[in-house]
Amino acid sequence: MKYVNQYDYRHWLYVTKTNLEPEEMLKGQKTTVASSGCGLCAAVMVADRLLPNTDFDLKAALQLSYDSKANHEGGTDYHIYAPAFAEKCGLKLEMTDDAERLRVCLRTGGAAVVNSGGDKDGYIGVFTHGGHYVTAISEEADGRIAVLDPSYKEGKYEEEGRKGKVEMKEGVIALCELQVLAEDASNRSPGFYLFWRT
I want to staple 118 with a disulfide (CB 3.0 to 4.6 A). Which of 28, 40, 109, 128 is the partner? Predict the structure, then answer.
């Protein structure tokens, strides 16, 4: 199992905001994988989960974002990136807002990228306060979902509003109830990008 933490790539430039005027776009050129590359890291972890001998690494993920023009906003636009990623890796893709489809995906050998939206009225985002992509890799025997979070750092899930919703396993696997992911993604559409081997 490969785990990729975006914070390990603070010096990897990731040019974003290419849809803006030139002077605004220059601000995007200061972004890095650490600040804006969670979607790239999530894709690498999906590829590793489904295609153990893949050569789809972070460098390939970054290049795919540029080639598909998924970097036009402040991060990676998965409406664009997910189909390009599925085609490049030969994977089947389903985009959905239905969290139960995520469970089906995991039970049938798939993996998924969850589009967490962050804080909203009366709710503190578990995986992010803003917007973030995480990778769901499996379902545990107790029904909890195993998640790889590209922006995990010590104490992240101990914050007020998050505490008790995530249990860490083996240092990098975040276990949570499906409902936690459903609530986290409820203000994004699609909330789930599901991938299977073809």
Answer: 128
For residue 7, pLDDT beyond 60? yes
Within the chain, residue ranges assigned H as helices are 22-28, 33-36, 38-50, 58-68, 78-89, 99-107, 178-184
Hey, is 12 helix, strand or coil? coil
Locate tokens 């995530």: which residue?
166
Distance (Å, whole) CA 17 – CA 106: 33
pLDDT in tens, 41-86: 999 999 999 998 999 999 999 999 999 999 988 899 999 999 999 9
Domains detected in the chain: 6-197 (3.90.70.10)
Look up residue 144 and give its DSSP letter.
P
When pLDDT is cut at 50, 70 and 90, the band that residue 3 belongs to is very high
Whether the model pTM is above 0.85: yes
List of residues 6+ apart from 99 with CB closer than 8 A: 178, 179, 181, 182, 185, 191, 192
